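Worked example 2:
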Amino acid sequence: MVKEARIEILESQLQDLLLRKTHLMRTLLGNMQAEQQVIELNDPLSMKGILAQRTVLIESLRKFREKLIVLGSHITQVRQNQEEHTKYSNIGDYLLSLFELLGGENPSLISLREQLLVLMNKIELQNIQNKSLLESRINYHREHNNHHSFEGAKVRAGL
C-alpha cells in the first residue's frame, strides 16, 4: 500500500514537471518564431534580446531534463526496486518507459508526452527555417557588399 501511494505521488510529480516543461517549450517556440520575424526585419538589436531570452529558456530546459532524470530514477527504483541504467536516445522513449513503469494508464501523462513530442518537432522545424532564413540573409548581404565593392572599384579605376 505504501508503494502504491509513493507511485501516485511520483506520477503526480511527473505530471507537474511535464506540464511546466510543456509551457517552457511553448515559450521557446514563441521565442524562435520571434527570431524569424527579427531575421526578416534585419533587426540586430532585437536579435540580441531574443537570444538572451533563449539562453535563459535553454538553461531552464536543461534543469527540467535533470529533474526528469532524477524523478525517472525514483520511479524506476520504486517500481522495480532497482537502479536505472538504461540510456535513451530521446525524451519520447524515456517518457514512454516511465509511463509503462507507472502502468501506462494515465491519460494526462500520455497527452503531455504527445504534446511534448509535437512541440519538439515544431521547434526542430522552426530551427531549420530560421537557420535557412539567416543563411539566406547572410548570403544576400555578402553578394550585395561584393557587388558594391566591385562597382566602387570600377568607379575608382575609371571604368
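Confidence is low (pLDDT under 50) at residues 152-159. The chain has one domain: 2-157.
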